[in-house]
Every structure is written in structure tokens, then in C-alpha cells.
Amino acid sequence: MIAKIFLISGLAAYFARCLAPEQFTTVFDNGRTGYLYSVGGRGYIGQLQSKFARKASLLVSKDPESALPLKVFRTEHQGVAYGLIAAEEALRDLSHPNPELPRPDFADRLVFSFANDRGEEKLYLLPLKSARKPQFSFSPVILPSSRAFQVYANEGCLSHAHKHSFITTECVDTLSDARDNQLFIWIDASRIESDKKDLDTFGRAHPLLPI
């Protein structure tokens, strides 16, 4: 099922490139550095500095300089395809990969994963060896003018809850603030300077389109 989602997503991205203006980067390339912009949060996903080096909260920042450089790796385990969202910087002291994800080349990565916080599953940046549910998949482009898409995780959609929190909620298909909170834009690192100008305008008044 997830593999089909990737196929559909790729086709949608292709047609979006044909039909939509070249305003933002199309979609992420496997292993290429970029940034995630939260439509609902009106800012870039960054890392909240913490004294706990092995568990970092994620935040939304208006400042592009605070954006967290990320890489998305497409991989598979037992025939199921998914994406890992990893920080560009690696942890060099990790040597034992998560046994559920036996890929030594990913063992030293900090990845998006979920951890319990006061009874609620929230998104953190964690070492892969201790990550729970680090598997993500991605919708086709929903807003062609901005390349916005949803991120599937935990049997729902990744959603911006407040400044320092991302959770999963039931996926929303209708025009609403709730759906905005589930929309993200990938900004290629090579285009951050040009794209951030467009994002300033997009953040003030973006054209909502039905799915």
C-alpha cells in the first residue's frame, strides 16, 4: 500500500510540474538536503536546543536560519516501502542500528520519531537505534501552486499542534485550519534563498485549493 502511495506521489509530482508555476522546489530528492516548511505553523521546522542531546524537540521558526537541514531517505523493510526523515548531521558515536531497520548506513542518523510526552505521542528528533515508529510516507501534492503535501505517520497525518509540538491526527481532506496544520512544503537547500521570499508571501495569504 505504501509503495503504491510513493508511485502515486511521484506521478502527481510529475503532473504538478507540468501544470503549476515553478514557484517552489518540486519535491524532495532521495538523500538530498532540504528543509520542511509547516503551512499551518507558518514557519520552518527547526530543532529546540536541549541539554538532553539524545532527544530533541522540534519547533516552528519564522527564521530560515533556524531551519533544520534534513534528508529524506526512501527505504524498505520486509517488502514495505517508507521514508526516513533524518537530520543532515549524524551522530558518530552510535554503532548499533535499530534491529527493526537493519540498515547500517542509517545507524548513525538522528531521525524524526515519536515518543510519549504526558500521555501524548509527539514528534522528536531521536537516534535511529532508539527510535519508535520512524516510518513516514507522503501524499501526492495537494496545493500545486506551492507543492504542499501531507505526511502520513502513525495511521494518521503529521500535524502542527503548537510552536513546540507535532503530533499525528486524523487526516483532513476539506479546506480548514486543521488541514493547513497537516500541510508541508519541501525546500531544497540550493533554493532556500529564493524560496524563502515566496514563502513570505505564501505565509500571508496562500491560495487554498480543494484536493
Q: Helices and strands in order, then pairings?
A:
Elements: H1 2-19, E1 34-38, E2 43-48, E3 56-61, E4 70-77, E5 80-90, E6 109-117, E7 120-127, E8 137-138, E9 151-153, E10 156-162, E11 165-169, H2 177-180, E12 184-188, H3 192-204
Antiparallel strand pairs: 1-2, 1-12, 2-3, 3-7, 4-5, 5-6, 6-7, 8-9, 9-10, 10-11
Structure description:
- Keywords: Signal.
- Residues 1-18 form the signal peptide.
- With 211 residues, the protein is of the alpha+beta class.
- It has one domain (2-191): Trefoil (Acidic Fibroblast Growth Factor, subunit A) (Trefoil), CATH 2.80.10.50.
- The chain is built from three helices and twelve strands, in the order αβββββββββββαβα.
- The chain has helices spanning 2-19, 177-180, 192-204; strands at residues 34-38, 43-48, 56-61, 70-77, 80-90, 109-117, 120-127, 137-138, 151-153, 156-162, 165-169, 184-188.
- An eight-stranded antiparallel beta sheet has the order 4-5-6-7-3-2-1-12, sandwiched between helices.
- A hairpin with a 2-residue loop joins strand 10 (156-162) and strand 11 (165-169).
- The radius of gyration is 16 Å and the shape is globular.
- The relative contact order is 0.20.
- Mean pLDDT is 73; it is low at 1-26, 91-104 and 203-211.
